[in-house]
Amino acid sequence: MTTPGGPSTALHRPGTVGEAVAALAAEARAGRPVELLAGGTDLVPALRTGTRPPAAIVALRRVLELRVRGAGADTLTIGAGVTYTELAGWSLSPGLAATSRVVGSVQIRNCGTVGGALGSANPRGDLLTFLTAAQAEVLLTSEDGSRAAGLDDFLSAGRLPGELVTAVRVPRPSGPQTYLKIGGRQAAFPSLVSCALLVDRVRERVCCAVGGVAARPWRVAEAERLAAADVDWSTGTAPAALARRFGELAAAGVRAASPLGEDPRHPLEYRVHAAGVLAARAFARCLTARSAPRRESAP
Amino acid sequence: MTGRARGVGGSVLRPDGLAKAGGTFVYAGDLSAPGMLHARTLRSPHPRARIRRVDTAAALRIPGVAAVVTAVDVPGVATYGLIVADQPVFAATETRYAGEPVAAVAAVDAPTARRALAAVEVEYEPLPPLVDPEVAAGPGAEPLHPDGNVFREITLRHGDPDAVGPVVVEDSYLVGMQDQAFLAPEAALVVPAADGGVDMWLATQWLHSDREQIAACLGLPEELVRLELAGVGGAFGGREDVTLQVHGALLARATGTPVRIAYDRVESFLGHPHRHPARMWFRHTATEAGDLVSVHARIIMDGGAYASSSPAVIANAVTHAAGPYRVPNARLDGLVVRTNNPPCGAMRGFGVPQVTIGHEAQMDRLADRLRMDPVGLRVRNALQPGDVLPTGQVLGPPLPAREAIEAVAARPLPAALTAASPVTARPGGRGAHADLARVRRGVGYALAYKNLLFSEGFDDSSTARARLELDADGRPVATIHSACAEVGQGFVTVAGQIARTELGVDEVVLRPADTGVGSAGSTSASRQTWMSGGAVRGACVAVVDRLLARVARRLGLPPEVVEAPRRALVITGGEIVGAETGTRLTLAEALAEGPVEAEHTFHHRRTTALDAHGQGDPHVAFAAAAHRAVVDVDLDLGLVRVVSMALAQDCGTVLNPLSLRGQVEGGTAQGLGLAVMEELVTVDGVVTNPTLHDYLLPTTADVPALDFVALTYPQPDAPYGVKGVGETPTCTATAAVLAAVRAAVGRDLRRVPVRPGDLVDLADPVDPLGGAPYLGNKAAWGQPGEMERG
Amino acid sequence: MDEVQIRLRVNGLERRGRVEPRLTLADFLREHCHLTGTHLGCEHGVCGACTVLLDGAAVRACLVLAVQAEGREVTTIEGLGTPENLSPVQVAFQENHGLQCGFCTPGFVVSVTALLRDNPDPTDEEIRAGLSGNICRCTGYQGIFKAVRAAAGNTP
């Protein structure tokens, strides 16, 4: 049926993951383009302008299973429907909390969800950068069953038709974590360059990802190797010079990656530089004697 | 409060404030009419293209589409424009900027109209765009329009053009394109009338100019085009040009149905002219003692595809290029050029913010060279009334430029950033966690002056009507009718204050601004309080004269009192009192006989056009302002936080201290935005960031409190001694922030907005100007050899 | 089943309607409920002019579909007070010149209402951070800060 507003859109409002994947499967079988609606921060404007004209929308707010977060012995599982506001105060994951606190504005944090961040897969996305550093797994469910995918694989391959992201899983923190980002003003800005850094004092390693420079959040492997080798793991500290070196290696690492498109205001040269500064700063925040072990907390 | 307390000089609250705070104030986009259609505009994606074919048939077949109009449907003049009618209502054979309207659609709802746009078939033949103004103005450049590529060139020569002082500083500066970004996108409701005309409710800055242009394009007499101001959500110059007015009227007439035409934010960015990007070269020379000897400047502005107010903007830029300083010898050249970039026109400051960035950077550079204090150098050279300006105009009083810069320099400085300061107070905010040891503070100053009202011989005027009568309860009530566009600046408050003061009544009703009364002129050029305030005051004075004369006649007072009743009678405390004549009656008694009404048209003093050497008496008056900015810069990341702003401004008599503060705080914030974040970016003529997600505006976290000093010397030829106040702080805020950043990082800055990459050491830095002096020996200029002589 | 029947409470009153699933809450409020105080400044969730309370949380009405508000409580600017009986926050904006063109004002008032409910005595930094998702182009924010402090009862 065609209404004046254009081809109309069917709405599914599942109450469970089972109903949600059933709806997705039905639409997939019918060959109809379908959009998943979570916080709406990306999809709703695109629906209004017609740039994304799905035949069906699956609205996920009523799926309470998706809004659960939990802690296992080794991992944290965050439901796809969990909002940034909920994460911003979560003491079990200081890194996720730090990341969520600097996403958009309070009104965006009240709506935006983990699943939405994965679905939109904005290469500068704050959460995506943190989850990359955190080596997150994405949990997906379809009528055929459930699976876990590494974040990288998920970003490369995306969801299969009929699949729903139900949660992400990250290791439980075993050391300081931080997330730094810069942009065009003092608050409520989209990330220009960002850096997530997690210290794992058990496995004696540092995981660090940079957003906003490469075509997707980029792990800086050389810098991570340096940290693993040179941090004093008995105290979990490192000298200031190591932070500088870490930043240099991070910048060199991300410079080698396939770059994001140019913005004349912020040339790649600057973004690479900023990535190095943020990486050194994140390293120092988590590992210099003065501040370690540091927990992210609201000032 | 009584009428007196709510009169001129009081911090009277906005009469529309309760409705605005309550959400019931009606903006243009809130209006609806039964059966109304929704209109949208189709825009060219190409900065320059030949249009081979436009086919609307498929769009018209979509259920719910009522009409599609294109260039062939324009019955009257095919073009419009504020100064020169060079902009097509719809592009017919060629598009000249990306975003130029090609067609408009009316449909039963907005989504259907959007779909119909996609169904309009336009066959474009893209042409290589000219996006560099120097290329477009240069020899051999292809004309982009029958009118040519140069909107205006001004060559100002003053004093001895060859005079030079022993101390010379020279550099070039680049200013990006700022958008007004008023918060309510363009909207209008157009209703076709039974008499063949149209009635339109819209958000605009100048109802009568709109009407003149709309009527010409529709081929209608002006009296059949009736406009009423709807609620306006900000303007800042961006609503001075016609945008959607003619399109909406064409659709309403084509369908015989009311039409709501409205832009979303992307369309708003594409739909109205912006602040001109500028490339500027300056050479200042001075004596060893620090007295300016000469200023040479070349200013090239990119006007974009159509003229808009470019010819007036460049005149402002050139005549203010030397700043508020005594400059005996000047060579100031300006050129504003047509390109395939988006059109540029009016924005708060109107050409002056750009040159202020240049002349103030030069003054700092000169102070450095002379090892003088930058404040001291400005004080030494500041203009004083009686001085001769580079145009030859003699500066009239008052102009407390020296006092302004001294006043801001005397304000206390903010506390240093410490480890105890919240992390949000560091440059970059919470997420950047700037290293305190690598945060450097900078303090910078800027001084400027800005013309008030329209210039260059334009006989500007504003008309208002006042009526005094008894309401249904027998109380005196004044009604004021002015076409002045209230865009947020507070004319509605001030008009009421003036009426209360002049008429001695409490109750003032402001009729909606519409074309049923004479033109009030534009809400721009810092002119409405002076011009329309003058008109309201004049109308009220005439009402009082008529009322007193009527009273004198009725009471049988002597003929000399009837002829000049103010000599014997006054209105005070709601009464008409005459001590000599023993008169005492209430206003209500005096009005029992019937209402008294008068109309007044206010003119400012005449000015003159510029002659071939840029000489004349072009500006009615000026206001001066000085800002002191304090910034913290993260030296590693090049991020800037503005810590504090102090402003001393030449305000004339203050009619409403609360409104004044709102204007200068808002003007400061817009200047701050241009300094550090606001830039509409084009790549090959296409705007790449037409959303508020990517065109960043200052937030609550970016704008510090304003330490404000009002300098209140009355302007002799203005009503009550007022000066316009809205634009001046925008001119200085940008330059002051830039100076503070320069002081913090210790390097020359040539580009506004400042980009973080300009403030840090990069392995491969980009010189924004590709080597200075940028404008040397460019063939675009009329006299290519002249640079060498200077 | 393309249009969807929805039922929600807006400013305490039950509203029903048949809507296209793609209709935003902002459009629903403006066009169906004629509550035009919820303004659209960017349609992108950035400017904050469309801020409303959804089950008490400040959200962008331009980022929420009307169908997502099904069964929920929406409070718009009109629900915070009437012109004859404005809320303390609304009065504070008027009295402290926290508005000029006024287009951003409803969004600010709703955000401030939520801010002060959760934090009745905010510091200046908390006010700055809490309101950074609402853009004002006219005032330079100083009148708005004064209004917030006045509404919080700690007028300087």
Automatic annotation (TrEMBL), chain A:
Pfam families: CO_deh_flav_C, FAD_binding_5. One of its GO terms (molecular function) is oxidoreductase activity. The keyword Flavoprotein applies. Residues 3-175 form the FAD-binding PCMH-type domain. InterPro entries: CO_DH_flav_C, CO_DH_flav_C_dom_sf, Diverse_Substr_Oxidored, FAD-bd_PCMH, FAD-bd_PCMH-like_sf, FAD-bd_PCMH_sub1, FAD-bd_PCMH_sub2, Mopterin_DH_FAD-bd. Keywords: FAD, Flavoprotein, Oxidoreductase. PANTHER family: XANTHINE DEHYDROGENASE SUBUNIT C-RELATED (PTHR42659:SF2). This is Molybdopterin dehydrogenase. It comes from Parafrankia soli.
UniProtKB/TrEMBL annotation, chain B:
SUPFAM superfamilies: CO dehydrogenase molybdoprotein N-domain-like, Molybdenum cofactor-binding domain. GO terms for molecular function: iron ion binding; oxidoreductase activity. It comes from the Bacteria. Residues 22-128 form the Aldehyde oxidase/xanthine dehydrogenase a/b hammerhead domain. This is Xanthine dehydrogenase subunit D. It comes from Parafrankia soli.
Automatic annotation (TrEMBL), chain C:
Pathway: Alkaloid degradation; nicotine degradation. PROSITE patterns: 2FE2S_FER_1 (PS00197), 2FE2S_FER_2 (PS51085). InterPro entries: 2Fe-2S-bd, 2Fe-2S-bd_dom_sf, 2Fe-2S_ferredoxin-like_sf, 2Fe-2S_ferredoxin-type, 2Fe2S_fd_BS, Beta-grasp_dom_sf, Diverse_Oxidoreductases. CDD domains: fer2. Gene3D superfamilies: 3.10.20.30, [2Fe-2S]-binding domain. Pfam families: Fer2 (PF00111), Fer2_2 (PF01799). Residues 4-80 form the 2Fe-2S ferredoxin-type domain. Keywords: 2Fe-2S, Iron, Iron-sulfur, Metal-binding, Oxidoreductase. GO terms for molecular function: 2 iron, 2 sulfur cluster binding; metal ion binding; oxidoreductase activity. SUPFAM superfamilies: 2Fe-2S ferredoxin-like, CO dehydrogenase ISP C-domain like. It comes from the Bacteria. PANTHER family: OXIDOREDUCTASE WITH IRON-SULFUR SUBUNIT (PTHR44379), XANTHINE DEHYDROGENASE IRON-SULFUR-BINDING SUBUNIT XDHC-RELATED (PTHR44379:SF8). This is 4-hydroxybenzoyl-CoA reductase subunit gamma. It comes from Parafrankia soli. The lineage of its organism: Bacteria, Bacillati, Actinomycetota, Actinomycetes, Frankiales.
